[in-house]
């Protein structure tokens, strides 16, 4: 890490480079690598910032200012933050470093207008969002202004709100560095934010918010944007709210931006066409599938060109077990305001109106904070209140995101809260329905006797409904779905998270460290599913992912890594790396985790399964007493399923993401052909149907763990065709269980009432 250069270009960056380029930089590099339309950019690395502190002699003076600081003392916080920022800005960037930045900017084109964005090394983590805590400077032109903006971004790491937020999240100031992204500015005609899944429930609904001009207006909440809901299962827009868009943010001359009124003809005009909504939803889905978790994405459109400007994990989705339906009102209360329910729950309290951050000191514990729109400086006050109401904003604005993270009910986009409500007034807000009531609202009591309440009994299905898991941190959330086990545990994230290839651990005599990390990560998930099957997929990492890790220097450069040295072929070609994985599995079996099963990815011939089994036998695994299976991801493995059964597989699981693209020759990450990616193509269905029938005849469990396993419609077809196990994403388990139950019931009724006829094969 210390040897990282001062400058890295986007094409050199992957998600594992977060310590050098921060959350924003790592995400941009990763998105660019999978073909998403990301504007050109380079990053001034975190190591450059650290070298700046050391070379200028500022390091110890800086941290002494912050040492022992009581961040809850607002005056002390503001004073310390001001001193720290002044210190960063008090000395020029060393000449050699400034020269590198100038040279990189010149390479972009000397007249390129850029956005200079802070990218802290602790932002956009799966369990904490630091976004918005550091500064961004838009519409920057010229070397001198770029240098100035970079230094201001560095200084913003020590702004009051950033120091406060880090302290409350348990991060030490010395442990957090900052990189700076210099990216071509897209002069968006329309822009906004989208969530690839519902930001509270995790439902497969893409929420898109957009307005005119630059996306800063939507992110900051200075405008109430249009809101579109795209159902991923139905592949169509199911809800549209056209807002009154009063202002937009546009570039201001050669430096900075300005907020201007929206022209009358565009105020109430729909920002996005149905086609644009569909394109955005499709690109969002690509990002979510790639990262394996729902994403919060910033986008911009110029003419017919669509750009992805940022993607970060959604940190506010609640486990199903913690999502409680809000109590409803009695219906007789006086409604004062209506807006958009941005964070669920009901809260009653005293109104505290703040016009600026200077007023936030008057906000007391238990108040209802009311503002035109919140900003990061208001976070300390937002932590104290029971509810939040804003004039502007939508589901993706600052107030909405922070409220969901804090678990505080919020209503945004009311248009007139600051003018209608009075300081000290008692109100009740309903964050589910977006309503503000006068006074304290008595919640309606459910008078239905418990014995007749519908939906209280768990749904029981003959089809096993399992869940897909990638990270140990998600184990409890996955188990809370009531899933019948884990149908796919990907270990790539455990390995990639080490930022070193298995080969590095071998070369540096640290094999035990690798084995222990893998053992501990898998064990956490096994412990969450006692007595239930947990199928672990052995390593399936393409060469381009390993190449950017320590130890990946000798990885081959492949034109199409998805068709290259990955899956079982990598393990068989590098048995010393395979052995490290198997050693972790051996220890888990020895520890009593008999529910652990292994499945080998990307097999295309039974000899690969036989060879893998023999390697396990040679390493001391009793292969006849453990559960070994395969992923059916290549057409050849479906066609040759009988031979795989004869070779001794105990289960087979469809990986439909790969099976579809290999059957149809469609790269699902290529936006030019992504529309041709068709999971229900007749050829794909015939391969799946054939493999299911052959497995059933042989008594071998047949399952599915690809994306199609999270589609209720597809699962209904699979159940009809005899599948006995499905594995879905965490947010889809409930819907999949309901789909399986309905299908099973229909099949039983059809059988009971039929006269022996056969409806024949059908889909939908």
UniProtKB/TrEMBL annotation:
Pyruvate phosphate dikinase AMP/ATP-binding domain residues: 19-328
PROSITE patterns in UniProt: PEP_ENZYMES_PHOS_SITE
Obligatory cofactor(s): Mg(2+)
Chain ranges of the PEP-utilising enzyme C-terminal domain: 461-743
GO molecular function: ATP binding; metal ion binding; pyruvate, water dikinase activity
EC number: 2.7.9.2
Enzyme class: transferase
Catalytic activity: pyruvate + ATP + H2O = phosphoenolpyruvate + AMP + phosphate + 2 H(+)
Highest taxon above the source species: Archaea
UniProt keyword terms in alphabetical order: ATP-binding, Kinase, Magnesium, Metal-binding, Nucleotide-binding, Transferase
InterPro entries in the record: ATP_grasp_subdomain_1 (IPR013815), PEP-util_enz_mobile_dom (IPR008279), PEP_synth (IPR006319), PEP_util_AS (IPR018274), PEP_util_C (IPR000121), Phosphohistidine_dom_sf (IPR036637), PPDK_AMP/ATP-bd (IPR002192), Pyrv/PenolPyrv_kinase-like_dom (IPR015813)
One protein family per Pfam: PPDK_N
Function per UniProt: Catalyzes the phosphorylation of pyruvate to phosphoenolpyruvate.
PANTHER family referenced in this protein's UniProt entry, alphabetically: PHOSPHOENOLPYRUVATE SYNTHASE
UniProt name for this protein: Phosphoenolpyruvate synthase
Species of origin: Methanocalculus taiwanensis
């Amino acid at each position: 890490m210390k040897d990282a250069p001062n400058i890295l270009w986007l094409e050199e960056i992957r998600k594992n480079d977060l310590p050098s380029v921060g959350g924003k930089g790592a995400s941009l590099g990763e998105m660019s690598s999978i073909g998403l339309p990301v504007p050109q950019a380079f990053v001034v690395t975190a190591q450059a910032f650290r070298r700046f502190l050391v070379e200028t002699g500022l390091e110890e003076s800086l941290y002494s200012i912050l040492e022992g600081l009581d961040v809850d003392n607002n005056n002390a916080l503001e004073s310390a933050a001001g001193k720290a920022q002044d210190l960063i800005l008090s000395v020029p960037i060393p000449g050699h470093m400034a020269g590198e930045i100038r040279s990189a900017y010149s390479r972009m084109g000397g007249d390129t207008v850029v956005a200079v964005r802070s990218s802290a090394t602790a932002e956009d983590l799966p369990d904490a969002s630091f976004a918005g805590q550091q500064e961004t400077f838009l519409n920057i032109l010229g070397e001198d202004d770029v240098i100035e903006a970079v230094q201001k971004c560095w200084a913003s790491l020590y702004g009051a709100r950033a120091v406060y937020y880090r302290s409350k999240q348990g991060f030490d100031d010395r442990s957090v560095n900052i990189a700076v992204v210099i990216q071509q500015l897209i002069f968006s005609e329309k822009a906004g934010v989208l969530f690839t899944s519902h930001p509270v429930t995790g439902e497969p609904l893409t929420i898109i918010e957009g307005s005119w001009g630059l996306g800063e207006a939507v992110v900051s909440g200075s405008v109430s944007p249009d809101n579109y809901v795209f159902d991923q299962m139905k592949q169509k827009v199911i809800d549209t709210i056209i807002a009154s868009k009063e202002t937009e943010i546009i570039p201001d001359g050669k430096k900075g931006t300005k907020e201007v009124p929206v022209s009358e003809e565009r105020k109430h005009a729909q920002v996005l066409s149905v086609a644009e909504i569909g394109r955005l939803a499709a690109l969002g889905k690509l990002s979510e599938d790639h990262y394996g978790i729902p994403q919060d994405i910033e986008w911009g459109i110029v003419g017919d060109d669509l750009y992805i400007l940022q993607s970060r994990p959604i940190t506010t989705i609640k486990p199903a077990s913690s999502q409680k339906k809000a109590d409803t009102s009695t219906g007789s209360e006086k409604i004062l305001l209506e807006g958009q329910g941005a964070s669920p729950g009901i809260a009653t309290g005293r109104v505290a109106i703040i016009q600026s951050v200077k007023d936030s000191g008057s906000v007391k514990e238990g108040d209802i904070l009311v503002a035109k729109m919140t900003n990061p400086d208001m976070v300390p006050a937002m932590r104290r209140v029971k509810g939040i109401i804003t004039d502007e904003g939508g589901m993706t604005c600052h107030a909405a995101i922070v409220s969901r993270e804090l678990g505080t009910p919020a209503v945004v986009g009311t248009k007139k809260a600051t003018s209608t409500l009075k300081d000290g007034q008692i109100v009740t807000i309903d964050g589910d329905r977006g309503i503000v009531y006068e006074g304290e609202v008595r919640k309606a009591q459910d008078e239905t006797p418990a014995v007749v309440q519908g939906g209280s009994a768990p749904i029981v299905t003959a089809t096993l409904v399992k869940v897909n898991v990638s990270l140990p941190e998600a184990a409890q959330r996955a188990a809370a779905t009531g899933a019948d086990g884990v149908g796919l545990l990907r270990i790539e994230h455990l390995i990639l998270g080490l930022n070193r290839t298995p080969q590095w651990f071998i070369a540096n005599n640290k094999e035990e460290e690798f084995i222990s990390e893998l053992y501990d990560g898998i064990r956490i998930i096994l412990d969450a599913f006692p007595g239930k099957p947990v199928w672990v997929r052995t390593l399936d990492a393409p060469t381009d992912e390993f190449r950017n890790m320590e130890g990946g220097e000798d990885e081959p450069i492949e034109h199409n890594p998805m068709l290259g040295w990955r899956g079982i072929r990598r393990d068989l070609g590098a048995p010393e790396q395979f052995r490290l994985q198997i050693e972790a599995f051996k220890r888990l079996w020895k520890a009593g985790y008999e529910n652990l099963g292994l499945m080998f990815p990307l097999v295309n011939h039974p000899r690969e399964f036989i060879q893998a089994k023999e390697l396990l036998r040679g390493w001391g695994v009793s292969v006849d007493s453990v559960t070994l299976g395969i992923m059916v991801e290549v057409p050849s493995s479906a066609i040759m399923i009988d031979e795989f059964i004869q070779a001794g597989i105990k289960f087979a699981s469809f990986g439909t993401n790969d099976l579809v693209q290999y059957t149809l020759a469609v790269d699902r990450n290529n936006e030019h052909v992504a529309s041709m990616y068709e999971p229900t193509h007749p050829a794909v269905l015939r391969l799946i149907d054939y493999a299911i029938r052959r497995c059933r005849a042989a008594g071998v469990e047949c399952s599915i763990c690809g994306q199609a396993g999270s589609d209720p419609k597809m699962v209904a077809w699979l159940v009809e065709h005899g599948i006995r196990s499905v594995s879905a994403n965490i947010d889809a388990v409930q819907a999949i269980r309901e789909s399986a139950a309905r299908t099973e019931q229909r099949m039983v009724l059809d059988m009971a009432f039929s006269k022996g006829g056969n409806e024949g094969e059908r889909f939908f």
